[in-house]
Design goal:
Shape: globular
CATH topology of the largest domain: TIM Barrel
CATH superfamily of the largest domain: Glycosidases
Radius of gyration: 25 Å
Low-confidence stretches: 1-25
């Protein structure tokens, strides 16, 4: 994993001012309505929409030489022989993750130390040099086969950093090479002497022309192996970690992204990429106000996707004068243990603790990525397996039965074809939308009457994100026995999903008041749970 680099104060201030120039200046008449229309028009791409709908809770699996050395970040000088699991069973991992209700697993196929969990043709620093299976094993193959057998999707984390390439005298990282015309995949025998010579791969995709230096050529060749020899990949996870630099090495991110789009166009590029951003901490907690619509300080084609760690990212003041607007949802990541790799002396989080983080990530318009590290045997520990199972059972108990069924619903305003019933029919694709044209039209209310008395303590709201992210502030109220209304809960953003914890309530008549919004509020789902 990574820790965000600290920017010098002057540079940080310069970036913030460039991200939202003139945010404090008075805005001309009609500017707010025009801004609302611009903001409401920003919607997810097809791959982002699929990611939000399918991959809400998923897993990280950190495994490698650090598992055996006790380190978190390796040195790049590890002997491949240190990697020697005695009972590796990726199917055990997959079953445990499935018990937690996860839908995807992301394997750390190469961490910062440069050791590859597959027999890459481009380096000996891999399982080929391990005594595990006499150097003929392939952790990536066992992983993808296992998780797919359990119905989970596959993700890959290939660290941009590579300490082995830095520390090796003949390493490619920072070797002073200049970009030259290259065709990926490069024949391993002519990697440096003739980088235009493509290696034919029977199971691979089309060759990929680019102009890169030695290290980026090495990285692209490994990406090509992973994306052409292991079936469909749904996420490519990069980070910005730089444990050590050499020779002013730069990463050719546009070339990497281009190769991914060519070979695995359905895959999201997460964290250091244009599809999904890091939430800004490693605690698994999203912001109380989490926007998916973000302002960029330059056009998308020129943007470098830095970490975004500010307390507020998408409010009107910050995005009003942005050079571009971009749908950029958050991923909240955390490890089940304190470290990202296995350490015997660390205890896992309980199912209850994971449930709390679920509600503070998923429940605040982010995805939830939980790392589970195999031990030196190559197995998840019994304690980790039990915690995952407990988490899955708690989710099913709390969110398995929606109590908001058979309801009567009305609204103060509705767009033709998008009546209030669309928000309570159990179908995300249908939705209610108000007929307002601007938040200047004032609050809009959705009234819900339950057919019977039930007790609930969680209210789940979902916007239809194909209509953008629009709600800026809302209040939930319940009618009391004397006919008065009492506030149950409130919030700012909703996005794909918002979970509001409320005191135990049995009120049959609820109303959701949208106090501030962009153009018109929408809701795809309203659900009640105990």
């Amino acid at each position: 994993m990574f820790k965000p680099a600290l920017l010098p104060l002057a540079l940080l201030c310069s970036f913030l001012s460039s991200a939202a120039p003139g945010a404090e200046a008075p805005r001309p008449p009609g500017a707010d309505e025009a801004l609302e229309r611009r903001l409401a028009a920003v919607v997810p791409s097809e791959r982002q929409y699929r990611w939000q709908r399918v991959f809400d809770v998923y897993a990280f699996v950190h495994f490698g030489p650090n598992t055996f050395s006790g380190r978190e970040w390796g040195t790049g000088k590890e002997d491949p022989a240190v990697f020697n699991p005695t009972a590796l069973d990726a199917r055990q991992w997959a079953r445990a993750l499935k018990s937690a209700g996860m839908t995807m697993a992301i394997l750390t196929v190469k961490h910062h130390d440069g050791f590859c969990l597959w027999p890459s043709r481009y380096t000996a620093q891999s399982v080929k040099g391990s005594p595990w299976k006499e150097g003929k094993g392939d952790v990536v193959r066992e992983f993808v086969d296992a998780v797919r057998a359990e119905g989970l999707a596959v993700g890959i984390y290939l660290s941009p950093a590579d300490l082995f390439q830095i520390e090796s005298p003949a390493g490619y990282y920072g070797d002073g090479s200049v970009p030259v015309d290259t065709v990926i995949p490069t024949d391993p025998t002519s990697f440096k002497t003739d980088p235009t010579k493509a290696r034919l791969v029977a199971s691979g995709g089309a060759p990929y022309p680019c102009k890169v230096d030695d290290y980026n050529r090495y990285f692209l060749n490994q990406l090509y192996e992973l994306m052409t020899e292991y079936g469909p990949i749904d996420a490519l996870w990069f980070d910005g970690a730089t444990p050590k630099s050499k020779g002013g090495q730069q990463y050719a991110y546009p070339a990497w992204y281009g190769l991914i789009r060519q070979l695995q166009p359905q895959a999201v590029i997460t964290v250091k990429g244009p599809d999904v951003r890091w939430v800004g901490n490693e605690n698994g907690i999203a912001r109380e106000t989490e926007w998916s619509v973000i302002g960029l300080n330059r056009p998308e084609a020129e943007y470098t996707w830095p970490d975004m760690t500010g307390k507020m990212l998408g409010d009107r003041a910050l995005v009003a004068d942005a050079a571009a607007l971009h749908w950029y949802p958050a991923e909240a990541n955390v490890s089940i243990r304190r470290g990202w790799f296995f350490h015997e002396d660390q205890k896992p989080k309980t199912g209850e603790q994971l449930m709390d983080l679920y509600e503070r990530s998923i429940g605040r318009n982010a995805s939830f990525l939980v790392n589970v590290p195999p031990d030196p045997r190559g197995l998840f520990s019994d304690a980790d397996v039990a915690a995952l199972k407990s988490f899955g059972e708690l989710r099913q108990t709390r969110y398995g039965t929606n109590l908001a069924t058979g309801v009567t619903v009305t609204a103060t305003s509705s767009l033709p074809g998008h009546a209030p019933e669309g928000a309570l029919d159990g179908k995300y694709e249908t939705y209610w939308e108000a007929a307002t044209k601007s938040s200047a039209d004032g609050p809009v209310t959705l009234d819900i009457t339950l057919p019977r008395l039930v007790t609930y303590r969680r209210i789940v709201l979902q916007e239809q994100i194909q209509r953008g992210q629009r709600v800026e502030a809302f209040t939930i109220e319940a009618e009391q026995a004397d006919g008065t209304w009492a506030k149950l809960g409130e919030g700012t953003t909703i996005g794909y999903k918002r979970i509001i914890a409320v005191p135990d309530s049995s009120a049959q008549h609820l109303r959701i008041r949208f106090d501030r919004y962009r153009v018109a509020p929408t809701l795809a789902e309203v659900e009640l749970y105990y």
